[in-house]
Amino acid sequence: PYYGAPVDPNAPYGRDPVSGEPLSDKSKVTAGLLQLFLGGFGAGRFYLGSNAVAAGQLITWFLGFLLMFAFGIGVLVWAGLGIWALVDAIMIFTGSVRDQYGRPLRS
Question: Locate the TM2 domain: which residues (predicted)?
């Protein structure tokens, strides 16, 4: 498009070149980096609007914290959470995850 071209009101952030679906206002890079570095707290998922998954990650972190002092197995819970966050970040970077409205993420 050129400067001053009309913007599609149904796709203000553009359309996916393959499927033609409107793109999300959320960035794939931002979501992926948040999930990679703060995934234990569900930051990337909160950013995308996946509040149920993010709450699950946050509760798992808190559960690991409590189990660390109670039984000493919190490290295992946190290790599992770390794997979950890493896999989730990879899925976000590859475009497998969509925003809360089902739109593909922008690059």
Answer: 25-70
- What residues are paired with 27 via a beta bridge? 106
Which residue do the tokens 């998954």 mark? 53
User: Is residue 74 in a domain?
Assistant: yes
Considering the domain boundaries, does residue 101 fall inside one?
A: no
Residue 39: domain span:
28-93
Rounded Cα gap, residues 68 and 73, in angstroms: 6
pLDDT digits (tens, 9 = 90+) for 58-95: 999 999 999 998 888 999 999 999 999 999 999 999 99
CA nearest to 98, candidates 34, 18, 25, 42? 25
Which tokens hold the place of 30? 């931002």
- Cβ-based neighbours of 11, under 8 Å, separated by 6 or more: 22, 23
